[in-house]
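Allow me, if you will, to draw on your knowledge of protein folds for a short while. Thank you for your consideration; the sequence and its tokens are set out here:
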Amino acid sequence: MHVFKFGGASVKDAQGVKNLEAVLRKVGFENTLIVVSAMGKTTNALEMVLDHYFHNKNELQSSLQEVKKYHNAILLDLFDSNNEETHPIFNKVTSLFDELRSFLDRNKSPDYNFVYDQVISYGELVSTMIISAYLNQVSIKNKWLDVREYIKTDNYYRRANVNWNATQAIITNKFDSSVLNITQGFLGSDDNNFTTTLGREGSDYSAAIFAYCLNAKDVTIWKDVPGVLNADPRYFENPQLLRKISYREAIELAFYGASVIHPKTLQPLQQKEIPLFVKSFMDPEQPGTMVGKEPGIDPMIPCFIVKKKQVLISLSSLDFSYIVEENISEIFKLLHLYKMKVDVIQNSAISFSVCVDNLYNNLPNLLLHLKAKFKITCHENVSLYTIRHYNYDSIAQLELDKTILLKQLTQETVQLVAQ
């Protein structure tokens, strides 16, 4: 079994869908599962729908119509527009958007995270339905799967945890490997069959879940880059291709925020030594990057990672007493309570600094709670830079023209929080 994952950039328009077909014809698709993300920036557009649903109902229908219009344009490019009334895909997509409107009309839950997962999921559902129909039309016969019937999770909405035993049992008993299957990334469902999501960029993780449960031969992630690079080309100049990376090294890079591979993707693959390939959907016959059990990285060069929109919180005790175990324990309980993802910590005798990702927008409540016991300095919208396998030239280059708020070095890694 081969598992292919195509991201939103690879299917952002009709030409991208046609290119997906071309990739399959070049590399083959026998005994294959395809996992696909939402098209283009659909997730962002649906987040705008959510924002209007909660804060500006007057704009809700307009923003929802924009999402439908975007997909309808792709449909008209892929399928004969004269057949709009007869080709079933048009009605199927319309039905999905009607279902979404119906949910928004009848929903009574004020829980943003719950509503988020129910709404955002339609990006992947529509995307895969269109691609499945198109491939069937061009004689690549396939079966569309609703991933929510296969991947079971808890109800930690927006970052659900997989119920591995239930998921393994369902996939083992229900999955038909005799046909080409197409399903959604990013999604699952809880015990009440409400939709859950696995975290942003979670489609890679979905591919790894299926690979683990199916004992797949390999996983290939198709990207708009030639493979895993030593730096994100959006933020760094002259990035270089990493030809081979060990599981351990890839997990380290993912943990620090490398955007090419989702942090949770690698553990299940490593457990069964399933190789992961990262390749370009524009040049599918190039070797790309292989992640496997071989040690280290090739070539051995500094790897640069940046995480934007972070928050640096610095604490000291009001009476200048030591920041010791009791205080640190209390701080971490509050970070957990307010769902702050911790990226860096640094402490001295009388101070404690932590760089966090304020994913759930709970920062005001956290700060209010902390102020009862600590003196606080807070820097919002900072950037966290990480260099794996640094040398001092790479640090000097990164520090240029930046205000460094925190710096931490270990033997293999340096991290800088900067404005």
Notes: The mean pLDDT is 95. The chain has two domains: 2-223, 303-418. DSSP finds twelve helices and 17 strands in the chain. The domain at 2-223 is CATH 3.40.1160.10 (Carbamate kinase).
